[in-house]
Design a protein that fits this description.
Its EC number is 6.3.4.4. It is an enzyme of class 6 (ligase). IMP binds at residues 13-16, 38-41, 124, 138, 218, 233, 297. This protein is α/β, with parallel strands linked by helices. It folds into two domains: 3-74 and 200-417, Adenylosuccinate Synthetase, subunit A, domain 3 (Adenylosuccinate Synthetase, Chain A, domain 3, Alpha-Beta Complex), CATH 3.90.170.10; 100-194, Adenylosuccinate Synthetase, subunit A, domain 2 (Orthogonal Bundle), CATH 1.10.300. Helices cover 32% and strands 22% of the residues. Strand 19 (403-407) and strand 20 form a beta hairpin. Helix 3 runs parallel beside helix 6 (149-169). The radius of gyration is 21 Å and the shape is globular. It starts with a strand and ends in a 5-residue tail after the last strand.
Protein backbone atom coordinates (compact mmCIF):
# COMPACT_ATOMS: atom_id res chain seq x y z
CA UNK A 1 0.00 0.00 0.00
CA UNK A 2 1.15 3.52 -0.78
CA UNK A 3 -1.71 5.53 0.75
CA UNK A 4 -2.77 4.48 4.22
CA UNK A 5 -5.02 6.09 6.86
CA UNK A 6 -4.31 5.83 10.60
CA UNK A 7 -7.26 6.65 12.83
CA UNK A 8 -8.58 5.79 16.28
CA UNK A 9 -11.35 3.23 16.73
CA UNK A 10 -12.39 4.37 20.21
CA UNK A 11 -12.84 7.78 21.90
CA UNK A 12 -9.36 9.08 21.12
CA UNK A 13 -6.09 8.70 23.05
CA UNK A 14 -5.48 5.30 21.46
CA UNK A 15 -1.83 5.96 20.61
CA UNK A 16 -2.32 7.20 17.05
CA UNK A 17 0.72 9.48 17.24
CA UNK A 18 2.96 6.58 18.20
CA UNK A 19 1.65 4.33 15.42
CA UNK A 20 1.82 7.16 12.88
CA UNK A 21 5.38 7.94 13.96
CA UNK A 22 6.23 4.24 13.58
CA UNK A 23 4.68 3.97 10.10
CA UNK A 24 6.05 7.36 9.10
CA UNK A 25 9.55 5.88 8.94
CA UNK A 26 8.35 4.08 5.81
CA UNK A 27 6.50 7.05 4.30
CA UNK A 28 7.35 10.22 2.40
CA UNK A 29 4.39 12.34 3.53
CA UNK A 30 2.27 12.51 6.71
CA UNK A 31 -1.07 14.35 6.53
CA UNK A 32 -3.30 15.62 9.37
CA UNK A 33 -6.76 15.79 7.80
CA UNK A 34 -9.14 17.14 10.50
CA UNK A 35 -9.40 18.61 13.98
CA UNK A 36 -7.05 21.13 15.51
CA UNK A 37 -5.04 21.55 18.69
CA UNK A 38 -7.73 19.75 20.69
CA UNK A 39 -5.79 16.62 19.71
CA UNK A 40 -2.86 15.38 21.74
CA UNK A 41 -0.28 12.98 20.32
CA UNK A 42 2.67 11.89 22.44
CA UNK A 43 5.72 10.43 20.71
CA UNK A 44 8.74 9.03 22.56
CA UNK A 45 11.98 8.92 20.57
CA UNK A 46 15.16 7.65 22.22
CA UNK A 47 13.66 8.35 25.62
CA UNK A 48 12.68 11.95 24.78
CA UNK A 49 8.95 12.78 24.89
CA UNK A 50 7.34 15.08 22.32
CA UNK A 51 3.73 16.25 22.82
CA UNK A 52 2.12 17.31 19.53
CA UNK A 53 -1.29 18.96 19.17
CA UNK A 54 -1.53 20.43 15.66
CA UNK A 55 1.58 19.32 13.79
CA UNK A 56 1.54 15.89 12.09
CA UNK A 57 3.41 13.08 13.83
CA UNK A 58 5.96 12.74 11.04
CA UNK A 59 7.58 16.02 12.05
CA UNK A 60 10.40 14.29 13.97
CA UNK A 61 11.73 12.65 10.80
CA UNK A 62 13.64 15.14 8.62
CA UNK A 63 12.90 13.35 5.33
CA UNK A 64 9.10 13.51 5.74
CA UNK A 65 6.86 16.25 4.35
CA UNK A 66 4.12 17.09 6.89
CA UNK A 67 0.81 18.48 5.65
CA UNK A 68 -1.91 20.28 7.61
CA UNK A 69 -4.80 19.71 5.20
CA UNK A 70 -7.95 21.69 4.40
CA UNK A 71 -10.15 19.74 6.84
CA UNK A 72 -8.28 21.16 9.83
CA UNK A 73 -9.02 24.25 11.92
CA UNK A 74 -5.74 25.86 12.94
CA UNK A 75 -4.87 28.07 15.90
CA UNK A 76 -1.94 30.15 14.56
CA UNK A 77 -0.68 31.12 17.99
CA UNK A 78 -0.77 27.52 19.22
CA UNK A 79 0.89 26.24 16.05
CA UNK A 80 3.77 28.69 16.36
CA UNK A 81 4.27 27.75 20.02
CA UNK A 82 4.49 24.12 18.93
CA UNK A 83 6.95 24.98 16.14
CA UNK A 84 9.14 26.79 18.66
CA UNK A 85 9.67 23.50 20.51
CA UNK A 86 11.10 22.07 17.29
CA UNK A 87 13.79 24.74 16.94
CA UNK A 88 17.09 23.18 15.95
CA UNK A 89 15.39 20.24 14.22
CA UNK A 90 15.11 19.94 10.45
CA UNK A 91 11.54 19.49 9.19
CA UNK A 92 9.23 20.12 6.21
CA UNK A 93 5.70 21.45 6.76
CA UNK A 94 2.88 22.63 4.48
CA UNK A 95 -0.40 24.29 5.53
CA UNK A 96 -3.54 24.26 3.39
CA UNK A 97 -4.68 27.65 2.13
CA UNK A 98 -8.24 26.32 2.59
CA UNK A 99 -7.87 25.41 6.28
CA UNK A 100 -9.90 27.60 8.64
CA UNK A 101 -8.28 29.78 11.30
CA UNK A 102 -9.11 29.71 15.01
CA UNK A 103 -9.26 33.26 16.40
CA UNK A 104 -9.73 34.68 19.93
CA UNK A 105 -13.52 34.85 19.71
CA UNK A 106 -13.68 31.12 18.98
CA UNK A 107 -11.85 30.37 22.23
CA UNK A 108 -14.04 32.71 24.26
CA UNK A 109 -17.29 31.40 22.81
CA UNK A 110 -16.25 27.76 23.23
CA UNK A 111 -15.68 28.20 26.96
CA UNK A 112 -18.78 30.36 27.44
CA UNK A 113 -21.10 27.89 25.70
CA UNK A 114 -19.73 24.92 27.63
CA UNK A 115 -20.17 26.76 30.93
CA UNK A 116 -23.82 27.51 30.10
CA UNK A 117 -24.77 23.95 29.16
CA UNK A 118 -26.65 21.91 31.75
CA UNK A 119 -25.38 18.72 30.09
CA UNK A 120 -21.65 19.32 29.56
CA UNK A 121 -20.07 18.06 26.33
CA UNK A 122 -16.57 17.98 27.82
CA UNK A 123 -15.02 20.30 25.23
CA UNK A 124 -11.31 21.12 25.50
CA UNK A 125 -12.29 24.82 25.07
CA UNK A 126 -9.77 25.21 22.25
CA UNK A 127 -12.28 26.93 19.94
CA UNK A 128 -12.67 23.93 17.67
CA UNK A 129 -16.49 23.74 17.67
CA UNK A 130 -17.06 27.47 17.06
CA UNK A 131 -14.47 27.46 14.24
CA UNK A 132 -16.23 24.56 12.51
CA UNK A 133 -19.57 26.33 13.12
CA UNK A 134 -18.26 29.38 11.25
CA UNK A 135 -17.05 27.12 8.46
CA UNK A 136 -20.51 25.55 8.11
CA UNK A 137 -22.31 28.91 8.16
CA UNK A 138 -19.77 30.33 5.68
CA UNK A 139 -18.46 33.10 7.91
CA UNK A 140 -15.07 31.59 8.75
CA UNK A 141 -11.68 33.04 7.85
CA UNK A 142 -9.43 30.73 5.85
CA UNK A 143 -5.64 30.66 5.66
CA UNK A 144 -5.65 32.26 2.20
CA UNK A 145 -7.37 35.33 3.72
CA UNK A 146 -5.40 35.21 6.96
CA UNK A 147 -2.02 35.63 5.22
CA UNK A 148 -3.29 38.56 3.12
CA UNK A 149 -3.07 41.60 5.47
CA UNK A 150 -5.65 43.78 3.68
CA UNK A 151 -8.13 40.94 3.26
CA UNK A 152 -7.61 39.72 6.84
CA UNK A 153 -8.40 43.18 8.24
CA UNK A 154 -11.49 43.46 6.03
CA UNK A 155 -12.78 40.08 7.21
CA UNK A 156 -12.18 40.95 10.88
CA UNK A 157 -14.13 44.19 10.40
CA UNK A 158 -17.01 42.12 9.03
CA UNK A 159 -16.94 39.32 11.60
CA UNK A 160 -15.92 40.80 14.96
CA UNK A 161 -18.95 43.12 15.43
CA UNK A 162 -21.20 40.07 15.01
CA UNK A 163 -19.03 38.01 17.39
CA UNK A 164 -19.06 40.83 19.94
CA UNK A 165 -22.86 40.60 20.03
CA UNK A 166 -22.52 36.91 20.87
CA UNK A 167 -19.89 37.62 23.52
CA UNK A 168 -22.16 40.28 25.03
CA UNK A 169 -24.94 37.69 25.38
CA UNK A 170 -22.58 35.63 27.54
CA UNK A 171 -21.60 38.66 29.63
CA UNK A 172 -18.11 38.86 28.10
CA UNK A 173 -16.14 41.95 27.08
CA UNK A 174 -16.04 42.82 23.35
CA UNK A 175 -12.92 42.33 21.25
CA UNK A 176 -11.09 45.13 19.46
CA UNK A 177 -10.63 44.64 15.71
CA UNK A 178 -7.29 46.45 15.82
CA UNK A 179 -5.96 44.46 18.79
CA UNK A 180 -6.80 41.14 17.15
CA UNK A 181 -5.49 42.30 13.79
CA UNK A 182 -2.07 43.47 14.97
CA UNK A 183 -1.46 40.44 17.19
CA UNK A 184 -2.53 37.89 14.58
CA UNK A 185 -0.97 39.75 11.64
CA UNK A 186 2.41 38.84 13.13
CA UNK A 187 1.41 35.17 13.34
CA UNK A 188 0.23 35.28 9.72
CA UNK A 189 3.58 36.65 8.55
CA UNK A 190 5.40 33.84 10.35
CA UNK A 191 3.18 31.12 8.84
CA UNK A 192 2.85 32.52 5.31
CA UNK A 193 5.89 30.66 3.88
CA UNK A 194 4.24 27.33 4.76
CA UNK A 195 0.82 28.03 3.19
CA UNK A 196 -0.04 26.51 -0.19
CA UNK A 197 -2.66 24.56 -2.15
CA UNK A 198 -2.19 21.22 -0.37
CA UNK A 199 -4.75 19.40 -2.54
CA UNK A 200 -2.58 20.11 -5.57
CA UNK A 201 0.52 19.21 -3.56
CA UNK A 202 -0.89 15.86 -2.42
CA UNK A 203 -2.12 14.92 -5.89
CA UNK A 204 1.35 15.67 -7.24
CA UNK A 205 2.87 13.44 -4.55
CA UNK A 206 0.55 10.64 -5.69
CA UNK A 207 1.65 11.10 -9.32
CA UNK A 208 5.28 10.94 -8.18
CA UNK A 209 4.64 7.59 -6.49
CA UNK A 210 5.31 8.85 -2.96
CA UNK A 211 3.97 7.00 0.07
CA UNK A 212 1.30 8.99 1.95
CA UNK A 213 0.17 8.41 5.52
CA UNK A 214 -3.02 10.14 6.73
CA UNK A 215 -3.33 10.85 10.46
CA UNK A 216 -6.67 11.38 12.16
CA UNK A 217 -7.25 13.16 15.46
CA UNK A 218 -9.56 11.95 18.26
CA UNK A 219 -11.37 8.65 17.56
CA UNK A 220 -14.20 7.31 15.43
CA UNK A 221 -16.64 7.31 18.38
CA UNK A 222 -16.15 11.09 18.49
CA UNK A 223 -17.20 11.43 14.83
CA UNK A 224 -19.88 14.09 14.34
CA UNK A 225 -21.95 11.67 12.23
CA UNK A 226 -21.12 8.18 13.51
CA UNK A 227 -20.02 8.86 17.08
CA UNK A 228 -21.82 9.04 20.42
CA UNK A 229 -23.62 12.30 19.57
CA UNK A 230 -23.75 14.89 21.14
CA UNK A 231 -20.62 13.84 23.08
CA UNK A 232 -18.49 14.11 19.95
CA UNK A 233 -16.00 16.41 18.28
CA UNK A 234 -16.97 18.83 15.49
CA UNK A 235 -15.50 16.91 12.55
CA UNK A 236 -15.13 13.33 11.34
CA UNK A 237 -11.93 11.50 12.36
CA UNK A 238 -12.92 8.43 10.32
CA UNK A 239 -10.99 7.13 7.32
CA UNK A 240 -14.11 7.78 5.24
CA UNK A 241 -13.61 11.55 5.68
CA UNK A 242 -10.08 11.67 4.25
CA UNK A 243 -10.99 12.47 0.61
CA UNK A 244 -13.13 15.54 1.40
CA UNK A 245 -10.68 16.74 4.06
CA UNK A 246 -7.61 16.53 1.82
CA UNK A 247 -8.80 17.05 -1.76
CA UNK A 248 -7.88 13.55 -2.94
CA UNK A 249 -10.14 11.15 -4.83
CA UNK A 250 -11.69 8.38 -2.66
CA UNK A 251 -10.26 5.57 -4.79
CA UNK A 252 -6.72 6.75 -4.06
CA UNK A 253 -7.01 5.62 -0.41
CA UNK A 254 -5.79 2.01 -0.24
CA UNK A 255 -6.23 0.98 3.39
CA UNK A 256 -7.02 2.03 6.96
CA UNK A 257 -5.32 1.06 10.22
CA UNK A 258 -7.58 1.30 13.25
CA UNK A 259 -5.50 2.15 16.31
CA UNK A 260 -7.03 0.41 19.32
CA UNK A 261 -6.02 0.40 22.96
CA UNK A 262 -5.87 -3.01 24.62
CA UNK A 263 -8.54 -1.60 26.97
CA UNK A 264 -10.93 1.37 26.66
CA UNK A 265 -10.52 4.99 27.77
CA UNK A 266 -12.46 8.20 27.46
CA UNK A 267 -11.90 11.84 28.47
CA UNK A 268 -14.85 14.05 29.34
CA UNK A 269 -18.55 13.33 29.38
CA UNK A 270 -20.62 10.65 27.67
CA UNK A 271 -21.31 6.93 28.07
CA UNK A 272 -18.55 4.37 28.59
CA UNK A 273 -20.34 1.00 28.91
CA UNK A 274 -17.36 -0.99 30.24
CA UNK A 275 -16.16 1.70 32.68
CA UNK A 276 -14.31 0.44 35.77
CA UNK A 277 -14.77 2.16 39.13
CA UNK A 278 -12.68 -0.23 41.22
CA UNK A 279 -9.06 -0.97 42.06
CA UNK A 280 -8.56 -2.60 38.65
CA UNK A 281 -9.51 0.66 36.96
CA UNK A 282 -7.10 2.65 39.13
CA UNK A 283 -4.35 0.16 38.41
CA UNK A 284 -4.85 0.56 34.65
CA UNK A 285 -4.87 4.37 34.99
CA UNK A 286 -1.52 4.37 36.79
CA UNK A 287 0.16 1.69 34.68
CA UNK A 288 -1.04 3.31 31.46
CA UNK A 289 -0.40 6.91 32.64
CA UNK A 290 -3.95 7.73 31.60
CA UNK A 291 -3.93 11.51 31.78
CA UNK A 292 -4.79 13.65 28.74
CA UNK A 293 -1.95 15.11 26.64
CA UNK A 294 -3.97 18.24 25.86
CA UNK A 295 -5.96 18.79 29.07
CA UNK A 296 -4.10 16.79 31.73
CA UNK A 297 -7.46 15.35 32.80
CA UNK A 298 -7.60 11.83 34.21
CA UNK A 299 -9.04 9.50 31.62
CA UNK A 300 -11.90 7.17 32.47
CA UNK A 301 -10.98 3.53 31.85
CA UNK A 302 -12.82 0.30 31.14
CA UNK A 303 -12.37 -3.19 29.75
CA UNK A 304 -11.85 -3.54 26.01
CA UNK A 305 -15.18 -2.96 24.25
CA UNK A 306 -15.29 -4.78 20.92
CA UNK A 307 -18.73 -3.40 20.10
CA UNK A 308 -17.23 0.02 19.44
CA UNK A 309 -14.34 -1.47 17.44
CA UNK A 310 -16.82 -3.35 15.25
CA UNK A 311 -18.80 -0.11 14.85
CA UNK A 312 -15.63 1.65 13.66
CA UNK A 313 -15.03 -1.15 11.17
CA UNK A 314 -18.57 -0.74 9.83
CA UNK A 315 -18.73 3.06 9.64
CA UNK A 316 -15.18 3.73 8.49
CA UNK A 317 -13.68 0.54 7.14
CA UNK A 318 -10.63 -1.22 8.58
CA UNK A 319 -7.96 -3.20 6.79
CA UNK A 320 -5.79 -3.64 9.91
CA UNK A 321 -5.79 -3.11 13.66
CA UNK A 322 -2.84 -1.67 15.56
CA UNK A 323 -3.22 -2.72 19.22
CA UNK A 324 -1.47 -0.41 21.68
CA UNK A 325 -0.56 -0.54 25.39
CA UNK A 326 -0.73 -4.32 25.54
CA UNK A 327 1.98 -4.19 28.23
CA UNK A 328 -0.39 -2.35 30.60
CA UNK A 329 -2.44 -5.55 30.97
CA UNK A 330 0.49 -7.63 32.27
CA UNK A 331 -0.06 -8.90 35.80
CA UNK A 332 -3.82 -9.49 35.70
CA UNK A 333 -5.13 -12.97 36.48
CA UNK A 334 -8.00 -12.55 34.04
CA UNK A 335 -9.17 -10.03 31.48
CA UNK A 336 -12.73 -9.22 30.48
CA UNK A 337 -13.66 -8.27 26.93
CA UNK A 338 -17.07 -6.88 25.97
CA UNK A 339 -18.36 -8.83 22.96
CA UNK A 340 -21.95 -7.54 22.85
CA UNK A 341 -24.56 -5.38 24.61
CA UNK A 342 -27.91 -6.25 26.09
CA UNK A 343 -30.71 -3.68 26.22
CA UNK A 344 -34.14 -4.43 27.68
CA UNK A 345 -33.43 -8.15 27.42
CA UNK A 346 -32.36 -8.05 23.77
CA UNK A 347 -28.82 -8.60 22.48
CA UNK A 348 -27.70 -5.81 20.13
CA UNK A 349 -25.78 -6.17 16.86
CA UNK A 350 -24.36 -2.60 16.87
CA UNK A 351 -24.07 0.29 19.31
CA UNK A 352 -27.37 2.19 19.83
CA UNK A 353 -27.71 5.47 17.94
CA UNK A 354 -29.65 7.11 20.79
CA UNK A 355 -27.24 8.20 23.51
CA UNK A 356 -29.86 7.48 26.18
CA UNK A 357 -30.01 3.85 25.07
CA UNK A 358 -26.22 3.58 25.07
CA UNK A 359 -26.18 4.78 28.67
CA UNK A 360 -28.48 1.90 29.62
CA UNK A 361 -26.80 -1.02 27.85
CA UNK A 362 -25.44 -3.95 29.82
CA UNK A 363 -22.06 -5.17 28.53
CA UNK A 364 -21.85 -8.89 27.78
CA UNK A 365 -18.35 -10.04 28.69
CA UNK A 366 -16.16 -12.95 27.76
CA UNK A 367 -13.42 -13.66 30.31
CA UNK A 368 -9.94 -14.57 29.07
CA UNK A 369 -6.94 -15.72 31.12
CA UNK A 370 -4.35 -13.01 31.77
CA UNK A 371 -0.57 -13.24 31.91
CA UNK A 372 1.92 -12.34 34.63
CA UNK A 373 5.03 -11.81 32.50
CA UNK A 374 6.34 -8.34 31.65
CA UNK A 375 6.35 -8.03 27.86
CA UNK A 376 8.05 -4.67 27.25
CA UNK A 377 11.16 -6.43 25.90
CA UNK A 378 9.51 -8.65 23.27
CA UNK A 379 10.33 -8.08 19.61
CA UNK A 380 7.90 -10.47 17.90
CA UNK A 381 4.47 -12.05 18.27
CA UNK A 382 6.08 -15.42 18.99
CA UNK A 383 7.87 -13.99 22.05
CA UNK A 384 4.58 -12.99 23.70
CA UNK A 385 3.18 -15.25 26.45
CA UNK A 386 0.57 -17.61 25.01
CA UNK A 387 -2.29 -15.85 26.82
CA UNK A 388 -1.20 -12.50 25.34
CA UNK A 389 -1.10 -14.10 21.89
CA UNK A 390 -4.58 -15.50 22.47
CA UNK A 391 -5.82 -12.04 23.48
CA UNK A 392 -4.76 -10.65 20.08
CA UNK A 393 -6.19 -13.63 18.21
CA UNK A 394 -9.51 -13.29 20.07
CA UNK A 395 -9.79 -9.64 18.95
CA UNK A 396 -9.08 -10.65 15.35
CA UNK A 397 -11.73 -13.37 15.45
CA UNK A 398 -14.41 -11.16 16.98
CA UNK A 399 -13.85 -8.06 14.80
CA UNK A 400 -12.95 -9.88 11.60
CA UNK A 401 -9.89 -7.67 11.03
CA UNK A 402 -6.25 -8.75 11.52
CA UNK A 403 -4.13 -7.27 14.32
CA UNK A 404 -1.13 -6.52 12.11
CA UNK A 405 0.68 -4.23 14.58
CA UNK A 406 0.97 -4.27 18.37
CA UNK A 407 2.98 -2.23 20.85
CA UNK A 408 4.44 -3.15 24.23
CA UNK A 409 5.76 0.22 25.40
CA UNK A 410 5.96 3.93 24.55
CA UNK A 411 9.14 3.94 22.47
CA UNK A 412 9.15 3.61 18.69
CA UNK A 413 11.28 0.47 19.07
CA UNK A 414 8.52 -1.20 21.12
CA UNK A 415 6.11 -1.28 18.17
CA UNK A 416 6.02 -4.59 16.32
CA UNK A 417 4.77 -5.62 12.88
CA UNK A 418 3.07 -9.00 12.50
CA UNK A 419 2.59 -8.26 8.81
CA UNK A 420 4.22 -5.69 6.55
CA UNK A 421 1.27 -3.48 5.54
CA UNK A 422 3.05 -0.31 4.38
Amino acid sequence: MKRLVVFGTQWGDEGKGKITDFLAQRSDVVVRYQGGNNAGHTIVLDGVKFALHTIPSGILSPHIHNVLANGMVINPKGLLEEMKKLEGREYHMHISDRAHVILPYHLLLDGARENKLKQKIGTTKKGIGPAYTDKAERSGIRMCEFINPELFLKRLEEVIPYKNEQLKNFGLEPLSVQDVYFEYKAYAEALKPYVCNTSLLLNNYVKEGKKLLFEGAQGSLLCLDHGTYPFVTSSSPTAASVPINTGLAPWLIEGAVGVTKAYTTRVGEGPLPTELFDEIGERIVERGHEYGTTTGRRRRVGWLDLMIIKHAALSSGLSSIALTLLDVLSGFDELKVCVSYRLEGKELKDIPTDINDLKRVEPIYQTLPGWQEEITHVTSFDELPKNAQDYLLFIEEQVGVPVDIFSVGPDRKQTIFRKNIF
